[in-house]
Write a structure and sequence with these properties.
The structure is a homodimer. Chain A is mainly β. Chain A has a domain of 78 residues: Sandwich (Jelly Rolls). Chain A contains one helix and eight strands. Chain A starts with 5 loop residues before the first strand and ends in a 22-residue tail after the last strand. At the A-B interface, strand 1, strand 2, strand 4, strand 6 and strand 7 of A face strand 1, strand 2, strand 4, strand 6 and strand 7 of B. Strand 7 of chain A pairs antiparallel with strand 1 of chain B.
Amino acid sequence: MNYKSINFSEKYKLFNEQWKPKVISEINNYQFKIAKIQGEFIWHTHHETDEAFIVLNGEIKIEFRDGIVTIKKGEMFVVPAGVEHKPSSLNESQIMLIEPKGVVNTGENKTSNLTAENDVWI
Amino acid sequence: MNYKSINFSEKYKLFNEQWKPKVISEINNYQFKIAKIQGEFIWHTHHETDEAFIVLNGEIKIEFRDGIVTIKKGEMFVVPAGVEHKPSSLNESQIMLIEPKGVVNTGENKTSNLTAENDVWI
């Protein structure tokens, strides 16, 4: 067993690309993925699962068809399964996603140019 | 739907007791629980599930029978299922646990004086 903690800041130093979640840990069949995001993502839905967003640095927004939420550093929000949403971030933000293994970042749009490779560990 | 983010600092202001995890959110059948901890917990094991610790403030240690890990603010660690462990914190720390609903904080010791009521939301 590896008795070493995972440091979020150090993990963020390992990549620069935006909107490409990297797995840093997992519990059971759930993964912890960090990403740098800036600008607007696409509208998409995860029909099969809720999705947790934690903002570690910066401030993001998630738009819904009937509302919007702002999530700042030190805050989290859960997008329920089946709810269409569009994340965005004016400046670059650092986020962590918690969700089951295998979730495609663009939801039902599996061939968007923003669709990221899954299960990429750093 | 409630378009409001969950602010960790504000949630921590809502209680003072130590070692009593409070649920602040959930995804599917997993819960996000925050706790204030100080001193030494008891040795225990979660046979059925991994358990994720995120340190939001302070610094904690988790002792194992063959090692120890230090987890500081901005870091996380996952204790694998079936691994006996004993968390501790010299000064009061603020942590977040992520694990399936229904996990007893004292593991197989379900009647310890440190056993907390489950599924308590704040």
